[in-house]
Amino acid sequence: MSDPGSHRASVLDGAATARAIKGELTERVAALAARGVVPGLGTVLVGADPGSQAYVRGKHRDCAEVGIASLREDLPATASQADIEAAVARLNADPACTGFIVQLPLPAGIDTNRVLELVDPAKDADGLHPTNLGRLVLRVNGPIDSPLPCTPRGILELLVRHGISLAGQDVVVVGRGTTVGRTIGLLLTRREFNATVTLTHTGTHDLAEHTRHADIIVAAAGVPGIITADLVKPGAIVLDVGVTRVVSPGTGSTTLVGDVDPRVAEVAGWLSPNPGGVGPMTRAMLLANVVEAAERAVIAAG
Ligand SMILES: Nc1nc2c(c(=O)[nH]1)N[C@@H](CN(C=O)c1ccc(C(=O)N[C@@H](CCC(=O)O)C(=O)O)cc1)CN2
Ligand SMILES: [Mg+2]
User: What are the DSSP E strand ranges found in 147-281?
Assistant: First the structure.
């Protein structure tokens, strides 16, 4: 490179990829409808967090686009553990609901794991029930036979659809949360993906020591700009998953800031934008999980 400032990473375009996937899912939903089956996504939303409200609204908008029915359980921030568990029980019992999610995070004081354990694993559209996480680890089933968590599955699909193979690659995951970091680490070490995974987090002593050797970096720590250009090997593939809402003290307006510093684009080979990268893929994979749960139910019914 003659001009060091002129390099720009290729874009892992999650928005366009998610649109393509939604087109494919629309056809599968139509095929189910021809057999008299309408997939239905249920959501449990507790409280008035603006981010969570926006995500749940977006999920139902996506459903309408591809022909999936919507069921909502909206509870106040004051909802008790028992109230939330009752909402989960209603969706478990409702035949119109073929898959559902509990929007996270739940308010402080609620035992999230207890709530997630009550979700019927066959209706678990987020792939976060212990049975489905266990299947992810044991590789009892592939993605079609049991749901994978939406963000890890979205990252995989984004890479595959850009012609990027993980086999033999050194992947450094930054972040150990259940919805992204820890689960994508476990998934990528499965034989079929064959990646070498290092799971780092905010307690890692020397993050740069790990990331500088990575072929692929999955940044999911939720720390704005934690991945700076000097932490990235030239040509590496960088996925910006973390999202932090930053409120400007002056204007009060909110901006979303990713884990990846914008100057990483001058070093990386591929970069997922944020917004427009992994977020839209997460939403598309939720729809895929709902459609597949309905398809499995049809097969099980013979
Ligand atoms: N039960 C769950 N809770 C949460 C999950 C989840 O997968 N299941 N993930 C996140 C939130 N989330 C979905 O719920 C989510 C976050 C962001 C996006 C997204 O498309 N982001 C856009 C930008 C959005 C904006 O402008 O506000 C983007 O990246 O382009 C989708 C889903 C935590 N909770
Ligand atoms: Mg190497």
Answer: 170-174, 196-200, 216-219, 237-240, 243-247, 254-258, 270-272
DSSP type of residue 278:
H
Residue 221 burial (CB count, 10 A):
24
Domain assignment present for 154: yes
CA of 235 to the centre of ligand 2 (A): 12
45 and 108 both lie in a single domain: yes
Domain housing 74: 36-127+281-300
* CA of 105, closest atom in ligand 1: 34
Select from 55, 88, 119 the residue to mutate for testing ligand 1; criterion: most ligand atoms less than 8 Å from CB: 55
Closest Cα to residue 153, out of 168, 140, 142?
A: 142
Q: Give residue 60's pLDDT.
A: 98
Token couple for 34: 């021809």
Q: Which atom of ligand 1 is nearest to the CA of 102?
A: 1
Question: Model confidence over 145-165: pLDDT tens digits?
Answer: 789 999 999 999 999 999 999
Do 161 and 55 belong to one domain? no
59 alpha carbon to ligand 1 midpoint, in Å?
9
Give the C-alpha separation, 140 to 53, whole Å: 34
Question: pLDDT category, 139, cuts 50, 70, 90?
Answer: confident
The Å distance, Cα 199 to ligand 2 centre, comes to: 16
Nearest 5°: phi and psi at 63?
A: -60, -45
Enzyme catalytic residues: 59, 103, 126
ipTM over 0.90? The verdict is yes
Short-list 126, 120, 46, CA closest to 90: 120
